[in-house]
Amino acid sequence: MMWSALDDLGAERIGHGVKAVTDPRLVDRLARDRVALEMCPTSNLQTGVVASRLAHPVDRLLRADVPVTVSTDARTVSGVTLADERELLRATFGWREDEWRTCQLNALAAAFVDDATRSALGPAITRDLAR
Protein backbone atom coordinates (compact mmCIF):
# COMPACT_ATOMS: atom_id res chain seq x y z
CA MET A 1 0.00 0.00 0.00
CA MET A 2 2.80 2.48 0.85
CA TRP A 3 4.63 1.57 -2.34
CA SER A 4 1.50 2.43 -4.30
CA ALA A 5 1.10 5.70 -2.40
CA LEU A 6 4.67 6.61 -3.35
CA ASP A 7 4.77 5.29 -6.92
CA ASP A 8 1.21 5.85 -8.10
CA LEU A 9 0.19 8.90 -6.12
CA GLY A 10 3.49 10.66 -5.44
CA ALA A 11 2.87 10.81 -1.69
CA GLU A 12 5.10 13.27 0.14
CA ARG A 13 3.82 12.38 3.59
CA ILE A 14 2.16 9.25 4.99
CA GLY A 15 -0.02 9.00 8.05
CA HIS A 16 1.19 6.49 10.62
CA GLY A 17 3.24 4.17 8.41
CA VAL A 18 4.24 1.91 11.30
CA LYS A 19 4.47 -1.16 9.04
CA ALA A 20 7.12 0.50 6.85
CA VAL A 21 9.78 -0.86 9.19
CA THR A 22 9.07 -4.40 7.95
CA ASP A 23 10.40 -3.57 4.46
CA PRO A 24 14.05 -2.41 4.43
CA ARG A 25 13.77 -1.24 0.81
CA LEU A 26 10.78 0.89 1.73
CA VAL A 27 12.63 2.38 4.70
CA ASP A 28 15.51 3.26 2.38
CA ARG A 29 13.11 4.85 -0.11
CA LEU A 30 11.35 6.91 2.55
CA ALA A 31 14.69 8.17 3.84
CA ARG A 32 16.13 8.87 0.38
CA ASP A 33 13.02 10.67 -0.91
CA ARG A 34 12.41 12.43 2.42
CA VAL A 35 8.83 11.16 2.69
CA ALA A 36 7.61 11.97 6.18
CA LEU A 37 5.83 9.43 8.36
CA GLU A 38 3.36 10.98 10.80
CA MET A 39 3.80 8.76 13.84
CA CYS A 40 1.22 8.67 16.66
CA PRO A 41 2.63 6.26 19.26
CA THR A 42 -0.15 6.37 21.85
CA SER A 43 -2.89 6.01 19.24
CA ASN A 44 -1.01 3.07 17.70
CA LEU A 45 -0.86 1.41 21.12
CA GLN A 46 -4.53 2.08 21.85
CA THR A 47 -5.66 0.66 18.53
CA GLY A 48 -3.39 -2.39 18.78
CA VAL A 49 -1.34 -1.55 15.68
CA VAL A 50 1.73 -2.14 17.85
CA ALA A 51 1.90 -4.60 20.72
CA SER A 52 3.89 -2.48 23.16
CA ARG A 53 5.72 0.80 23.57
CA LEU A 54 9.05 -0.89 22.84
CA ALA A 55 7.62 -2.51 19.71
CA HIS A 56 6.72 0.86 18.20
CA PRO A 57 9.03 1.51 15.22
CA VAL A 58 9.31 5.29 15.66
CA ASP A 59 12.84 5.11 17.07
CA ARG A 60 14.10 2.60 14.49
CA LEU A 61 12.67 4.68 11.65
CA LEU A 62 14.13 7.93 13.00
CA ARG A 63 17.55 6.27 13.35
CA ALA A 64 17.22 5.02 9.74
CA ASP A 65 16.94 8.70 8.71
CA VAL A 66 13.26 8.50 7.77
CA PRO A 67 11.74 11.96 8.37
CA VAL A 68 9.52 10.96 11.28
CA THR A 69 7.08 13.39 12.86
CA VAL A 70 5.23 12.83 16.14
CA SER A 71 1.58 13.73 16.52
CA THR A 72 -1.32 12.97 18.83
CA ASP A 73 -3.73 11.65 16.17
CA ALA A 74 -7.21 12.08 17.67
CA ARG A 75 -6.18 14.00 20.77
CA THR A 76 -9.69 14.32 22.15
CA VAL A 77 -10.36 10.60 21.68
CA SER A 78 -6.92 9.32 22.69
CA GLY A 79 -6.64 11.64 25.68
CA VAL A 80 -3.02 12.42 24.86
CA THR A 81 -1.12 15.64 24.33
CA LEU A 82 2.08 16.27 22.43
CA ALA A 83 3.83 16.64 25.79
CA ASP A 84 2.54 13.15 26.70
CA GLU A 85 3.96 11.73 23.47
CA ARG A 86 7.28 13.44 24.15
CA GLU A 87 7.44 11.90 27.64
CA LEU A 88 6.48 8.47 26.29
CA LEU A 89 9.36 8.60 23.79
CA ARG A 90 11.80 9.83 26.43
CA ALA A 91 10.81 7.06 28.84
CA THR A 92 10.69 4.33 26.19
CA PHE A 93 13.63 5.12 23.93
CA GLY A 94 15.65 7.63 25.92
CA TRP A 95 14.88 10.43 23.50
CA ARG A 96 16.44 13.75 24.35
CA GLU A 97 16.16 17.19 22.82
CA ASP A 98 18.01 16.19 19.64
CA GLU A 99 15.47 13.53 18.66
CA TRP A 100 12.54 15.75 19.54
CA ARG A 101 14.01 18.70 17.61
CA THR A 102 14.56 16.47 14.58
CA CYS A 103 10.93 15.34 14.64
CA GLN A 104 9.61 18.89 14.92
CA LEU A 105 11.83 20.13 12.11
CA ASN A 106 10.72 17.13 10.03
CA ALA A 107 7.13 18.21 10.66
CA LEU A 108 7.93 21.72 9.50
CA ALA A 109 9.60 20.41 6.34
CA ALA A 110 6.61 18.12 5.62
CA ALA A 111 3.91 20.71 6.34
CA PHE A 112 1.64 21.53 3.43
CA VAL A 113 2.37 25.25 3.57
CA ASP A 114 4.03 27.72 1.25
CA ASP A 115 7.68 28.68 1.64
CA ALA A 116 6.84 32.03 3.25
CA THR A 117 4.81 30.32 5.97
CA ARG A 118 7.49 27.68 6.48
CA SER A 119 10.13 30.43 6.81
CA ALA A 120 7.99 32.29 9.32
CA LEU A 121 7.33 29.19 11.43
CA GLY A 122 10.93 27.96 11.51
CA PRO A 123 12.29 30.51 14.01
CA ALA A 124 9.24 30.09 16.26
CA ILE A 125 9.66 26.33 16.38
CA THR A 126 13.39 26.62 17.02
CA ARG A 127 12.75 29.17 19.76
CA ASP A 128 10.09 27.00 21.43
CA LEU A 129 12.39 23.98 21.34
CA ALA A 130 15.09 25.96 23.12
CA ARG A 131 12.84 26.47 26.15
TrEMBL record:
<comment type="similarity">
    <text>Belongs to the metallo-dependent hydrolases superfamily. Adenosine and AMP deaminases family.</text>
</comment>
<keyword id="KW-0862">Zinc</keyword>
<keyword id="KW-0378">Hydrolase</keyword>
<protein>
    <recommendedName>
        <fullName>Adenosine deaminase domain-containing protein</fullName>
    </recommendedName>
</protein>
<dbReference type="InterPro" id="IPR001365">
    <property type="entry name" value="A_deaminase_dom"/>
</dbReference>
<dbReference type="InterPro" id="IPR006330">
    <property type="entry name" value="Ado/ade_deaminase"/>
</dbReference>
<feature type="domain" description="Adenosine deaminase">
    <location>
        <begin position="2"/>
        <end position="122"/>
    </location>
</feature>
<keyword id="KW-0479">Metal-binding</keyword>
<dbReference type="Pfam" id="PF00962">
    <property type="entry name" value="A_deaminase"/>
</dbReference>
<dbReference type="InterPro" id="IPR032466">
    <property type="entry name" value="Metal_Hydrolase"/>
</dbReference>
